[in-house]
Amino acid sequence: MNAIRFFSGLCALTFSSLVIAQGRLPTIPPEQYTPEQKQAVQDFETVRKAALRGPFQPLLHSPQVMTLMRSTGDYLRYKSAIGTTLSELVILVVAREWTQDYEWMVHQPIAVEVGIKASITDAIAQGRRPQGMSDDEEIVYDFSTELHKNKHVSDHTFARAEKRFGKQGVVDLTAINAYYTSLAMQMNAAEYQVPKDAKRLQRFPR
């Protein structure tokens, strides 16, 4: 709940005063919504208690996909078996892997607020393995980075995750990686922009 309150406050203080560059899939003005888009936005605002923002703006060009993604995120973001603190660590790993500035801009402050050390987030931003992680953070970090970089998870890493979080936790951990990867892909494809004064992740050679 602390993460949810912090995120809501961040949105209220920050996103209301920022103009996000439009990119390839411009934000649709409310007066131009189709009936399906209008319903999708209404459902979003009812469930999330916030205005439509971030990846859901370009996703609204396909309102059915947007609604399905929002619904999936309702569980994975707030109710997963690994908890909201560790899920923030996963999101940062995904944001770094995809060099997704918006995901990083939103979730790095939340991660620190809910208990992830700033030194850990700094290391991830720099592409380094963090030092001083807790056992749970190490399990989640190793599982996520292996999944992204190797397209596979080793038996040792899988066994540690299953022992700690159970089978549901392993499924949820994988799904959080997949969900935020999908959002990152949508924003990267749309060239969704952060504000000009926002800190951007370092670009690494591919």
From TrEMBL:
Keyword hit for Protein biosynthesis:
no
Family matches, as InterPro entries: AhpD-like (IPR029032)
The membrane-spanning stretches of this chain are none
Gene3D superfamilies from the UniProt entry: AhpD-like
Instruction: Write the signal peptide boundaries.
Output: 1-21
Q: What keywords is this UniProt entry annotated with?
A: Signal
Keyword Signal in annotation: yes
* Highest taxon of the lineage: Bacteria
PANTHER family linked: 4-CARBOXYMUCONOLACTONE DECARBOXYLASE FAMILY PROTEIN (AFU_ORTHOLOGUE AFUA_6G11590)
Full protein name? Carboxymuconolactone decarboxylase family protein
Q: Which organism is it from?
A: Limnohabitans radicicola
